[in-house]
């Protein structure tokens, strides 16, 4: 099944982008080729660009506080007390670590003059060639273990952000209401009845060769499936088939 996620707020949209960047960074970090670690450096600059646009630390703490309040409000008979205690302890640890961060998130990367010099060159196509950045070329020729240690050191101060993003999105996805549905001729609507939904997740069989698009407000979601065009964008013509899919509505 192919999973498509549709955030309903700008805050969740930013967290999903950060999650995607962190996952790509981890993938490239785990590699050993110089090109893997070059991609990790470029991905790190992308992380700095996203994190520098918002007061991310405050947003994460507010979301953790909101989710903590929602968990505490659950009826005791519906709660695994041990699991709840573990979650609350993790929330507190993450919140404390976020409070310990000073200033904006991207300032931890901006303090490294060498990285910032590379960042300015990285915006130039091919700007990190060996003749443009000989010190960077030298770094890429170091043993993989040395490069990995450097990358981990440069991102160590950002780990509370990563933990906060994983925790918030994990709790949100874990609290999903799941529906098996069919979209007649590719069109589907569902009333939300005023409940606050933060994220919708759509699972589709890849054999159907369809791409979903969604529009939503606090009362209604509208979902439409269309075949991909040659440029991979959704087509506008209606489908001639009914589309089975799984919908998850994530609230907390």
TrEMBL record:
The gene is zapD. One of its GO terms (biological process) is cell division. Interacts with FtsZ. It comes from the Bacteria. Belongs to the ZapD family. Keywords: Cell cycle, Cell division, Cytoplasm, Septation. It is found in: Cytoplasm. SUPFAM superfamilies: YacF-like. It holds the Pfam family ZapD. The lineage of its organism: Bacteria, Pseudomonadati, Pseudomonadota, Hydrogenophilia, Hydrogenophilales. The keyword Cell membrane does not apply. This is Cell division protein ZapD. Cell division factor that enhances FtsZ-ring assembly. Directly interacts with FtsZ and promotes bundling of FtsZ protofilaments, with a reduction in FtsZ GTPase activity.
């Amino acid at each position: 099944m192919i999973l498509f996620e549709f955030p309903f707020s700008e805050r969740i949209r930013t967290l999903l982008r950060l999650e995607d960047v962190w996952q790509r960074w981890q993938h490239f970090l785990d590699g050993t080729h110089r090109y893997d670690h070059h991609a990790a450096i470029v991905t790190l600059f992308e992380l700095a660009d996203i994190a520098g646009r918002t007061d991310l630390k405050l947003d994460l703490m507010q979301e953790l506080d909101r989710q903590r309040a929602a968990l505490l409000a659950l009826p005791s008979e519906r709660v695994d007390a041990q699991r709840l205690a573990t979650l609350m302890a993790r929330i507190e640890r993450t919140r404390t670590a976020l409070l310990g961060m000073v200033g904006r998130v991207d300032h931890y990367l901006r303090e490294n003059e060498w990285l910032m010099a590379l960042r300015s060159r990285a915006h130039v196509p091919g700007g990190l060639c060996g003749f443009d950045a000989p010190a960077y070329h030298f770094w890429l020729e170091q043993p993989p273990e040395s490069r990995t240690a450097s990358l981990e050191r440069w991102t160590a101060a950002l780990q509370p952000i990563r933990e906060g993003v994983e925790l918030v999105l994990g709790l949100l996805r874990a609290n999903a209401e799941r529906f098996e549905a069919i979209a007649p001729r590719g069109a589907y609507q569902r009333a939300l009845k005023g409940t606050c939904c933060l994220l919708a997740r759509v699972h589709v069989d890849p054999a159907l060769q369809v791409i979903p698009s969604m529009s939503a407000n606090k009362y209604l979601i509208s979902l439409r499936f269309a075949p991909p065009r040659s440029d991979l964008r959704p087509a506008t013509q209606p489908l001639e088939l009914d589309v089975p899919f799984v919908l998850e509505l994530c609230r907390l």
